[in-house]
Write a structure and sequence with these properties.
The protein has 596 residues and is α/β, with parallel strands linked by helices. The chain contains 21 helices and 13 strands.
């Protein structure tokens, strides 16, 4: 009798476990339906390869999530309280909460481009009224729990019939194949840079596709296609948001000199005597920030005037900056003088589409390439008869490089906070800046005083040889740069004390030089450099890691929504909550130009 009761108990638990697996499976299907909302935010694949990967990854990911919820929340209850009515009610409640959470995540992702996390949840909670704009947030959970209770009861009544078909193992095998296949396909796509696949990396919550590029390349397995940056799949991008209305009768020549890795705190009379004097004689912006800590994001913010989160947008892949489009439309001749490696780093690839390009060879180092770039500009400049816009990009400071035989300047004592290796880099960096200073003097000596000259850094510089550390560092050393403008007939020696950024250059040139009457919000995230910005924050970085510079703090956020807050000098980690209102503006700005 006792054995019979034990057997009945085991049969009951077995039936409940079987029921739980099928309940998890059907909730996986429901999760796929809800998860289809993510595609409305990121866009749809354009090839059968993309659709095939999307199908198997969707099945694998949401089935996996549903099973994990069952394993963590329902399976222990099945063993502790093996009563079907209790379990069905509890399971319906858990499934409802899970689907509601998933639905809320789709809303947050559509609005901010982030999945739920402590950062995203705080952000969304502060903006709850804007996210939940109707009574559907009350009706929807009621509808879901009704559906879940119906599903739970219907499955319980038909569990024996399902068992007779022996479908369980086949379903598990199919889901397992989809899950494993999606990761294997992604390994190949990551190595071959198939953006139609890798573009979905961050679409689904808790999705961490497998990558093995370094392993595959070390074994000679490499894609045959050209290397491309990952493309963020988005909805239609409106850039510019409105047709531009631009007309100007006065078209000055414009020379933009962008210097890779030029720190603002290194611009002094000993290191860069010429630029120091030039800064004192012209319009100088003392609190200026790049839009990124790397060449790619820095040059993007300078020419497009948009946050780096737009940098991989499909809608920009063939679209050059409105600044260079408008310059070309008004008859300017555009010349770019840079190195091939820098041209390969830019994203989107259409960044320099409107320029005639002269590349310098880096065979003998960046400094020799800079000398070539200056010579190329001088030759091009001498041949121009129409209004011109030139972008001269100098690279030597990024590699601490100087030409062979360069005498340079005497070393100075580095800050005691620097490590021994960093002190060596510090003084070598000064030598490189001194070399650049001489190149600037030689370049500007042949340029007419009537030319509008802009000199700035693409980004700052962290004294380290660790590229990963440098790419993640968002301190002022990495992003604060000089901005000096020689504006003919505007006076001299003006030092601007309010905070400015690279985002302001495009609106300044569009309104003051090209006569555009549009609001700057039609084509840029910035405001004119000639007046203080209404925003008390600056966005720096891209969609993977970015920083929000505010008045007295710096918030650094990664793509998973993890954030840390530092003081304004980036020296102390502050244990406090983020300031949600400003960050809501930041996230909205990063989505403003998209049509959903």
């Amino acid at each position: 009798m006792v054995e019979r009761k034990k057997q009945m108990g085991r049969d009951k638990v077995s039936r409940l476990v079987n029921w739980g697996h099928w309940f998890a499976f059907f909730n996986g299907l429901l999760a796929m339906i809800v998860g289809s909302r993510y595609l409305g935010s990121v866009g749809y694949p354009e090839t059968w390869i993309g659709w095939g990967y999307l199908a198997i990854s969707t099945i694998g990911q949401f089935s996996f999530l549903a099973f994990m919820v069952y394993l963590v929340c329902l399976f222990p209850i099945t063993l502790l309280l093996p009563y079907s009515k209790i379990l069905r009610g509890f399971a319906a409640l858990v499934a409802t909460l899970g689907l509601c959470l998933l639905l809320y995540d789709t809303i947050v992702y559509d609005d901010y481009g982030l999945h739920l996390s402590p950062f995203a949840f705080d952000l969304a909670w502060a903006d709850l009224n804007a996210l939940l704009q109707s009574t559907s947030y009350i009706v929807t959970p009621l509808a879901i729990i009704t559906l879940e209770l119906t599903l739970a009861n219907a499955l319980w009544k038909r569990i024996e019939k399902l068992q007779k078909y022996h479908l369980g193992n086949k379903v598990v095998a199919f889901i397992g194949v989809c899950f494993i296949s999606s990761h294997l396909v992604h390994i190949w796509a990551d190595a071959a840079d198939i953006t139609e696949i890798t573009g979905f990396d961050e679409t689904y919550p808790l999705s961490y596709p497998a990558t093995a590029r370094s392993f595959m390349e070390s074994h000679g397995i490499e894609g045959t296609g050209p290397r491309r940056s990952k493309a963020a799949l988005r909805s239609t991008l409106n850039y510019p948001a409105q047709p531009l209305q631009c007309q100007s009768d006065n078209l000055p020549n414009v020379l933009l000199i962008s210097i890779d890795s030029l720190r603002a705190d290194m611009l002094d009379a000993k290191t860069m005597p010429f630029l120091s004097r030039y800064s004192a004689q012209n319009l100088s912006f003392g609190q200026h920030y790049s839009g990124g800590n790397q060449f790619k994001t820095g040059i993007f913010s300078l020419l497009y005037g948009l946050q780096g989160s737009y940098g991989d947008a499909v809608g920009l892949s063939e679209t050059s900056p409105v600044l260079t489009q408008t310059l070309a439309a008004q008859g300017y001749r555009l010349g770019l003088f840079s190195t091939q490696t820098n041209l390969e780093q830019v994203s989107p690839k259409a960044t320099f589409k409107d320029f005639s390009i002269e590349t310098a060879s880096e065979t003998n180092g960046s400094a020799e390439a800079d000398i070539q770039s200056v010579q190329h500009f001088q030759a091009w400049h001498a041949a121009q008869s129409a209004p011109w816009f030139a972008l001269l990009n100098l690279k030597a400071p990024d590699n601490y490089d100087t030409p062979v035989g360069f005498l340079g300047i005497e070393t100075v004592r580095a800050a005691s906070t620097l490590k021994p290796a960093e002190k060596v880099l510090f003084n070598q960096y000064r030598q490189s800046l001194n070399f650049i200073d001489q190149q600037l003097q030689a370049t500007l000596a042949g340029v007419s005083p009537d030319t509008l000259v802009i000199i700035t850094g693409v980004s700052g510089k962290l004294f380290t040889s660790n590229l990963n550390e440098a790419s993640r560092d968002m301190s002022p050393a990495s992003v604060r740069v000089p901005m000096i403008i020689h504006w003919p007939n505007m006076g001299s020696g003006n030092k601007v004390k309010y905070r400015t950024s690279h985002y302001g250059l495009v609106p300044t040139l569009m309104s003051q030089v090209l006569g555009c009457t549009n609001q700057s919000t039609d084509y840029s995230a910035g405001r004119s450099l000639l007046q203080p910005s209404k925003e008390n924050w600056v966005y720096i970085g891209d969609s993977r890691i970015f920083a929000i510079y505010q008045e007295n703090e710096i918030t650094v956020i990664d793509r998973h929504g993890k954030y840390r807050i530092f003081d304004e000098h980036y020296e102390k980690h502050l244990h406090k909550k983020m300031s949600a209102p400003e960050l809501i503006q930041v996230m909205r700005e990063g989505r403003r130009l998209y049509n959903h």
